[in-house]
């Protein structure tokens, strides 16, 4: 096998056809609300990591657990990449009527693209935070927040960071 791209071989690269049961699909006995998504720093150097915080609130009548998921989207990549990629997740227990602030990190290596070797590229990115994939069309209510950040500097091989 010489063609290692996953284009057309996995749902992450399919066109407009969504998967029947995307990652994170499921039901809960309570409801959650996401708010206050913050990315620090909003402009970062090519080899830097991104700090993410988001508040998760249990708006239902029962205690519950939520799997908070972070997805990354490259806005103008130089090579084929997934529509979005899961870069972090965390299962969180939240009592009914309470909220909790989560802190997560997106490592520089998670922004790397394959171009005859792993490399980091500057550009604009969108980060999604929620209980499901972005743009998921299901009957399960869940919010997905988004925020943009940018990466500056010259493209470089990942091993040089």
UniProtKB/TrEMBL annotation:
<dbReference type="GO" id="GO:0005975">
    <property type="term" value="P:carbohydrate metabolic process"/>
</dbReference>
<dbReference type="InterPro" id="IPR013783">
    <property type="entry name" value="Ig-like_fold"/>
</dbReference>
<dbReference type="InterPro" id="IPR026891">
    <property type="entry name" value="Fn3-like"/>
</dbReference>
<dbReference type="InterPro" id="IPR050288">
    <property type="entry name" value="Cellulose_deg_GH3"/>
</dbReference>
<keyword id="KW-0378">Hydrolase</keyword>
<feature type="domain" description="Fibronectin type III-like">
    <location>
        <begin position="66"/>
        <end position="133"/>
    </location>
</feature>
<dbReference type="Pfam" id="PF14310">
    <property type="entry name" value="Fn3-like"/>
</dbReference>
<dbReference type="InterPro" id="IPR036881">
    <property type="entry name" value="Glyco_hydro_3_C_sf"/>
</dbReference>
<protein>
    <recommendedName>
        <fullName>beta-glucosidase</fullName>
        <ecNumber>3.2.1.21</ecNumber>
    </recommendedName>
</protein>
<comment type="similarity">
    <text>Belongs to the glycosyl hydrolase 3 family.</text>
</comment>
<dbReference type="GO" id="GO:0008422">
    <property type="term" value="F:beta-glucosidase activity"/>
</dbReference>
């Amino acid at each position: 096998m010489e063609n290692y791209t996953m284009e057309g071989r996995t749902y992450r690269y399919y066109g407009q056809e969504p998967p029947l049961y995307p990652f994170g699909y499921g039901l809960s006995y309570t409801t959650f609300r996401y708010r206050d998504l913050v990315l620090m720093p909003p402009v970062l150097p090519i080899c830097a990591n991104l700090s993410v915080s988001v508040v998760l609130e249990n708006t239902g009548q029962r205690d519950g657990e939520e799997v908070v998921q972070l997805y990354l989207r490259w806005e103008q990549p130089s090579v084929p990449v997934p529509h979005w990629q899961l870069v972090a997740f965390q299962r969180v227990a939240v009592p009914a009527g309470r909220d909790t602030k989560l802190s997560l990190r997106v490592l520089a290596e998670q922004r790397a693209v394959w171009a005859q070797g792993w490399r980091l590229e500057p550009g604009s990115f969108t980060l999604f935070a929620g209980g499901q994939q972005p743009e998921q069309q299901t009957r399960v209510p869940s919010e997905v927040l988004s925020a943009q950040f940018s990466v500056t500097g010259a493209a470089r091989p990942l091993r040089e960071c």
